[in-house]
Each structure stands twice: as structure tokens, then as C-alpha cells.
Design the sequence.
């Protein structure tokens, strides 16, 4: 038995620190592990050797700063995580391993708003299909990350707004999927998962404070503060779409008038163009036409960018993030939308906050949320359990 403060308990704690650092980052050189954990280079070297001998990590040659180095990552067969992303019009599922490798990914159209039961039936079917296709061992599934297009009540685990998903009233998404798959499920809203995906794999790498803005059928923001998703005590932090821009503006689905969402979300923007461009127009089509030079589409996208920039300026003044990442279909418009966002930020944000901010398109496109779901499952894994499973003293963990 380990005694607190003993050499064995200290060694165990150091093993878990190293495993957690690697798990969260995907891969690190030994020098990076030392900087991240605060352990000495010699201690890190000994722990990495022990973890490698026990099958917890794999070590591959690499270079850092022009010098030879060794990259450390968790073993690919140490465990499996699953990401499930419900959008308003799609379902996407991905399977990954602890080395941050995506083993399989598939998406299919789905009217998520209509029925929660149908949505979870389809999710269960798709997860099972990908498990069979990849041949992964179900006993190695460490957890599932689940994304839904609405706020999750932190205390009850229920969807926080039936106005967003009327067919999901009273549903506890994590419990529903856990009952079907028989493994731990961790749930968050899609904007938070988009932020997590971009933070780990995309345009947010290397920063610790950012906002991920997703514009689709609604508008939301995932907030990262000091490297962690900030959800607020009730789980509704980041509802940037309901900042009031005009008290006498259009009535929003939340019941207020003139919310940012009523000037930027697809359900409000597309009707402006459909009389001249047809009833089948989508935001993806608007972006494509704008890039081809269509003046009406370019004007609408620029207007949306200016309105989004007003909301981003408020975020800058309150939270002072170093980076804003734009996701959703609108991000494909590039400078047509990013330029107006920066213009509004420069006009309305405190100058010092505006100078420190970079505004970038997301690097992951429509995959941001499902990769964020994988990252959520990774981050919720317990290092201790993984260590016990593969080594006498310690074993692998997951981000």
C-alpha cells in the first residue's frame, strides 16, 4: 500500500503527471514534458523509459529546434475514444486512439430537431458500424464525447433550452447515449467542442485564451481561458448569439429583440437573398457565390461580419482573448467575412485588447466539433485507471 508522501506515492504521482501531459497534448518531446510537468530532465527520461517498457507510451525519433529529439505519445493500442457530434442537420461520428489518431470517421444527414429518440438510434447504429469497420476491441473504449447544438445544464445534465431543440425536451443526452453504448459519456455543446477541437488540432494550437465563434442555424461561442473550456456555473457561458444589438430589432427565438443571432444566423440571413437567388439557397451556397463575385452575397456576408465583430469586440473588452477562431460555413468566406470582423473589433474594442487579438478561420471546418468530442473524451479519462491497466506500477492515460 502506498503511503502519502512516500517515495512510491511520489513516483506514482510523477508517472501520472507525465502520462497526463502526453495524453492532453497528443505527443511531446522529453524536453517539452519536463517544461510542462516541472520535472527534471533526468526524472522525465527515467519515467519515459519505464512507461515505454510497460507499453504505456511509444517513442519515435524527431527533431526540435534543429536538434535530434524523441517524441513521446501514448501507445496506439492503449485505449479507444469515440466522438459523436449532433448538428441541426447532420450526425458525425469519429473513433480515435490515445495517440490522437483518428481511426475512422463518418457523417450522414439527420434532422436532429425532429426527434431525440431517432437521433440516438442513428448515433448508436453509426458508432456500432464504425467499431465493426475498424475492428477495435470494445473493452478498450475509454469513453465517448458527445456534442449537441444547445446549452447543457451543468447540474441536471439536461438540454438547457427547448427553444433550440424542441424535440429534446427533458432529455439528458449523456445518460441516453450511455444507456445505449454501456460506456462513460461526457456531453457539451457544439461551440465548446469546436473550441476544444481547434485548440488541440487546429487554429487554436499554441494559445491558452481564445474564443471559437460558430455561426450556423444559431450563433454560439466556445471560450477557452487559461487552456480550459469555460462553461460558467450553469453551463451557458458563451451564448454570444444573444447579445442585444438593437432593442427594437427582430424578435429572437429566445424571446428578446435584436439579438446578434437575428442579424447573423442562417435562418435570418438566407431570407434576405432568397427572393433574388431562389428558395433552395444555403449558407454554403452564399459563401460560394460570394467568392465568385456575387455582389448581393458579398454584401450580406460583409454585414454579417460587421455584426459578429461587434459581439467579438464585447468579448475582447470583457475577457481579452488572444485569438478568435471563426467556425461554421461562414468561415469558408475567408477575408470577405474576417475583414469586416476585424474592422468592427478595431472600432468598438478597447485599443489594447484589439491590438493583441488575431482573428482566424477554423482549420478543421465541419470536423471541429467531432474532433472536439474526441478531445473531450480524452480529457475526461483517468490516468490512474489506465496506468493500473497496463503496468504493475503505472499505465497509460488519455486526453
Sequence:
Amino acid at each position: 500500500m502506498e503511503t502519502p508522501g512516500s517515495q512510491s506515492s511520489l513516483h506514482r504521482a510523477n508517472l501520472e503527471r507525465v502520462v497526463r501531459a502526453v495524453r492532453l497534448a497528443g505527443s511531446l518531446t522529453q524536453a517539452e514534458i519536463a517544461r510542462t510537468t516541472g520535472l527534471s530532465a533526468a526524472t522525465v527520461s527515467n519515467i519515459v523509459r519505464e512507461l515505454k517498457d510497460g507499453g504505456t507510451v511509444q517513442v519515435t525519433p524527431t527533431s526540435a529546434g534543429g536538434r535530434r529529439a524523441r517524441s513521446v505519445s501514448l501507445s496506439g493500442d492503449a485505449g479507444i475514444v469515440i466522438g459523436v457530434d449532433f448538428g441541426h442537420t447532420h450526425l458525425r461520428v469519429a473513433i480515435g486512439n490515445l495517440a490522437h489518431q483518428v481511426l475512422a470517421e463518418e457523417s450522414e444527414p439527420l434532422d436532429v430537431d425532429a426527434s431525440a429518440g431517432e437521433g440516438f438510434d442513428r448515433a448508436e447504429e453509426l458508432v456500432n458500424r464504425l467499431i465493426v469497420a475498424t475492428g477495435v476491441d470494445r473493452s478498450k473504449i475509454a469513453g465517448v464525447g458527445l456534442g449537441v447544438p444547445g446549452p447543457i445544464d451543468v447540474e441536471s445534465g439536461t438540454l438547457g433550452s427547448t427553444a433550440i431543440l424542441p424535440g429534446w425536451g427533458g432529455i439528458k443526452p449523456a445518460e441516453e447515449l450511455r444507456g445505449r453504448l454501456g460506456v462513460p459519456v461526457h456531453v457539451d455543446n457544439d461551440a465548446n467542442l469546436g473550441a476544444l477541437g481547434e485548440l488541440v488540432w487546429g487554429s487554436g494550437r499554441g494559445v491558452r485564451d481564445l474564443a471559437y465563434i460558430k455561426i450556423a442555424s444559431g450563433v454560439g461561442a466556445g471560450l477557452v481561458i487559461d487552456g480550459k473550456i469555460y462553461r460558467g456555473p450553469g453551463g451557458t457561458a458563451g451564448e454570444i448569439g444573444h447579445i442585444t444589438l438593437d432593442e427594437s430589432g427582430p424578435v429572437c427565438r429566445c424571446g428578446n429583440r435584436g439579438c446578434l443571432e437575428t442579424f447573423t444566423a442562417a435562418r435570418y440571413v438566407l431570407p434576405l437573398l432568397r427572393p433574388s437567388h431562389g428558395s433552395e439557397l444555403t449558407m454554403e451556397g452564399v459563401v460560394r457565390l460570394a467568392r465568385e463575385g456575387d455582389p448581393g452575397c458579398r454584401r450580406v456576408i460583409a454585414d454579417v461580419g460587421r455584426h459578429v465583430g461587434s459581439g467579438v469586440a464585447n468579448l475582447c473588452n470583457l475577457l481579452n482573448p488572444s485569438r478568435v477562431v471563426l467556425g461554421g460555413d461562414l468561415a469558408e468566406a475567408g477575408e470577405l467575412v474576417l475583414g469586416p470582423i476585424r474592422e468592427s473589433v478595431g472600432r468598438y474594442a478597447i485599443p489594447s485588447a484589439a491590438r493583441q487579438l488575431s482573428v482566424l478561420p477554423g482549420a478543421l471546418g465541419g470536423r471541429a466539433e467531432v474532433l472536439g468530442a474526441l478531445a473531450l473524451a480524452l480529457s475526461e479519462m483517468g490516468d490512474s485507471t489506465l496506468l493500473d491497466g497496463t503496468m504493475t506500477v503505472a499505465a497509460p492515460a488519455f486526453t
